[in-house]
From TrEMBL:
Residues 1-22 form the signal peptide. It comes from the Eukaryota. It comes from Psylliodes chrysocephalus. This is EGF-like domain-containing protein. The lineage of its organism: Eukaryota, Metazoa, Ecdysozoa, Arthropoda, Hexapoda. Keywords: Signal.
Length: 110
């Protein structure tokens, strides 16, 4: 084994040991219960999630917070001839008035 491999092995071992120690010690932020753009801090022994700067709580998936900024979650996710709404962080697709079908794929005139 060369020196570079030994250093990498030591780093990986230390990271693993830290994770194991944190889990045994009861760190509620490991693994993090927060979303992809959330930051976990332990407050009074409990995990507390907060959004990163520039990101809003609506961000649930990486695509929602590109560059830590909220983007429109409905963009292109519903089918043709549909309407999209976000209610309580849930995407809801429905057929336009006078149309029927599967709003997540396509709706057609009645």
């Amino acid at each position: 084994m060369n020196l570079k491999s030994l250093v990498l092995l030591k780093i990986l071992t230390l990271v693993y040991l830290h994770q194991c120690y944190s889990a045994v010690a009861g760190d509620p932020c490991i693994p993090s219960p927060c979303g992809p753009y959330g930051q976990c801090k332990t407050i009074n022994g409990r995990p507390s999630c907060s959004c990163l700067v520039g990101c809003r709580p609506e961000c649930r998936i990486n695509a929602d917070c590109a560059d830590n900024k909220y983007s429109e979650p409905c963009s292109g996710l519903c089918g043709f001839n549909t309407e999209c709404r976000v209610v309580n962080h849930t995407l809801i697709c429905s057929c336009n008035s006078g149309y029927t079908g599967n709003p997540y794929i396509e709706c057609w005139a009645i």
